[in-house]
Specification:
The complex is a heterodimer.
Chain A lengths: L3 E4 L2 E5 L4 E7 L6 E7 L6 E7 L4 E4 L2 E6 L4 E6 L8 E5 L16 E6 L1
Parallel strand pairs in A: 2-10
Antiparallel strand pairs in A: 1-3, 3-8, 4-5, 4-9, 6-7, 7-8, 9-10
Chain B lengths: L3 E4 L2 E4 L5 E7 L5 E8 L3 E10 L2 E4 L7 E2 L9 E3 L8 E8 L9 E2 L3 E5 L1
Parallel strand pairs in B: 2-11
Antiparallel strand pairs in B: 1-3, 3-8, 4-5, 4-9, 5-6, 7-8, 9-10, 9-11
The chains are: A mainly beta, B mainly beta.
Chain lengths: 113, 114
């Protein structure tokens, strides 16, 4: 079955620094690559996604890069702020139909003031 | 307001007592799904539904049932709950399968099975 890994599992950065979280997957059928953010005690929410025909996508301080050959995609957060502190999950689907999702184990980001 | 609503938000119950967690969305979404979240294991998919009367197993379906009689509702049923089903449960919906749409999550239901 699909194996999804995230690195690192925890990450602490100083406010204003950049953070990078990497997601690796095993199933080459994936064509959609989302990242979700979950703040403490709250529901996961999509923050950015990318499709396989695009190598990079940016939305203000957040960007996602995709390397389909190497089977990984990464979340980049620049100029981090305390409100970026959360757990981040990648969730590539198992198939092209986007029905059966496998979430990564999560990365806990702490932004220190 | 577009939302996914789960009830109850919290429940403490005992082993073997049947329970149902309801999930309702008001966005006319075709796809709905249930996940459980446990420390260190992330979110694991229990069941999903592509449309009315169409349901399928996710990664951890054992001990759970679902139904999709109406487009807006997707209840999760635990016929005989056991302590290993103590977890945080999330319902999610998206516009359509195959369209690679983001999932919208409910606020979660924390179940404790004693």
């Amino acid at each position: 079955g699909e194996n999804v890994e995230q690195h690192p599992s925890t990450l602490s950065v100083q406010e204003g620094d950049s953070a990078v979280i990497k997601c690796t997957y095993s199933d080459s059928a994936s064509n959609y690559f989302p990242w979700y953010k979950q703040e403490l005690g709250k529901r996961p929410q999509l923050i950015i996604d990318i499709r396989s025909n695009v190598g990079e996508k940016k939305d203000q301080r957040i960007a996602v890069t995709l390397n389909k050959t190497a089977k990984h995609f990464s979340l980049h957060i620049t100029e981090t702020q305390p409100e970026d502190s959360a757990v981040y999950f990648c969730a590539p689907p198992l198939d092209n139909y986007g029905q059966n999702f496998v979430f990564g184990p999560g990365t806990r980001l702490s932004v220190l003031p | 307001e577009a939302q996914v609503t789960q009830n109850p938000r919290y429940l403490i119950t005992v082993t073997g007592k049947k329970l149902t967690v309801t999930c309702s969305q008001n966005m006319n979404h075709e796809y709905m799904s249930w996940y459980r979240q446990d420390p260190g294991l992330g979110l694991r998919q229990i069941y999903y539904s592509m449309n009315v009367e169409v349901t399928d197993k996710g990664d951890v379906p054992e001990g759970y049932k679902v139904s999709r009689k109406e487009k807006r509702n997707f209840p999760l049923i635990l016929e005989s709950p056991s302590p290993n089903q103590t977890s945080l449960y999330f319902c999610a919906s998206s516009r359509a399968p195959g369209a690679h749409q983001p999932q919208h999550f409910g606020d979660g239901t924390r179940l404790s099975i004693l």
